[in-house]
Amino acid sequence: MAKISMMVLATIQRVYGFLFNIRYFGPFFDAFTAYLSVVLNFLNGSFVASGYEKSNRPEKLIELYVYDGCPFCRKVFYAVSVLGLDVKVYPVPRVTLKKYGELKESRYRHKAVEVGGKAQFPLLVDENTETVMYESKDIVEYLWKTYGSKATEPTSYKMANAFAVSNFLTNILRPLGSQGMLRIPSKSPKQPLELWGYEGSPYVMRVKELLCSLELPYVYRTVPKFATDKRKEYSKRFAHMVPSYRKNLGLIQVPLLVDPNNNVEMLETNDIMEYLNKNYKIGEVLNESFSDYTTQGAGEGHYTADS
């Protein structure tokens, strides 16, 4: 059954790969599948939990070792967004689908093993409580207990959790290796980038996927809807960049990327993606599909013994 599922996904990948590369139509199809994914996930991550500001807030940034092509990692991202937390993200996309848990060439998977002992994701590191934790379910429970004890889950978050299969649909709608599943060779930045946005935005989704595949570390500043204090912080720093009609309506615009390495602050998804590719990308993603996927060769630490 698993083999058949992988073959079906591989077929979908090939079709999507063809459609994404059609001139003019490709960008439209890319945006459409991102929109559809968000809708089928009930806009999960778009709205902040009421009472979040009354809960404890971490003094130091929580660190996450995650990759956007993983549904369990996305589950953690949804909780982070709903709770209005800021986190430092170390992207750990797969090196290859042909060898399970491969570490070679990965920018941060070796570091994840040093920190936690195995190449299993998502991995949370919280220096505020000296916590190192695996398993998405445990991490989500930890985040709510530690930083959302006085908060109430928004309806969209409850609905998405009630229909958990909706999260996995994203892997069907966003199946390409370059969409946060496989690494793309890139230059390593001296300083982490900074991304302002929230889960539930198809525009933010596309930028996060590329940041992940390029293995670019970044601080994720979440500004979900109704997170008044977070959005005030955004407006204080970036009001000069937001179009007048948005400011007049009290709205912000995401994604917003800050790259301290080049003194860049920019809006617009397509412009941000073009910038990241131009300034950091140095190679192409591997031409692999889910038909190449294997779990053979995995050691006890979820990585290959010779990595």
Q: Your description of this structure?
A:
The chain is of the alpha+beta class and 307 residues long. The chain is 40% helix and 12% strand. It has helices at residues 2-20, 25-40, 71-82, 109-116, 136-147, 155-162, 165-173, 202-213, 228-238, 244-248, 269-280; strands at 62-66, 86-91, 123-126, 131-134, 193-197, 218-222, 256-259, 264-266. Strands 4-3-1-2-6-5-7-8 form an eight-stranded mixed β-sheet, sandwiched between helices. Helix 2 crosses helix 8 (202-213). The mean pLDDT is 93.
Question: N-to-C SSE series?
Answer: HHEHEHEEHHHEHEHHEEH
The major sheet is characterized as: 8 strands, mixed
Tally of alpha and pi helices: 11
Roughly what is the average pLDDT, rounded to an integer?
A: 93
Globally, the shape reads globular
Rg from alpha-carbon coordinates: 19 Å
**Fraction of residues in helices?**
40-55%
How much of the sequence is in beta strands? 5-15%
What is the strand and helix layout of this fold?
Layout lengths: L1 H19 L4 H16 L21 E5 L4 H12 L3 E6 L17 H8 L6 E4 L4 E4 L1 H12 L7 H8 L2 H9 L19 E5 L4 H12 L4 E5 L5 H11 L5 H5 L7 E4 L4 E3 L2 H12 L27
Parallel strand pairs: 1-2, 5-6
Antiparallel strand pairs: 1-3, 2-6, 3-4, 5-7, 7-8
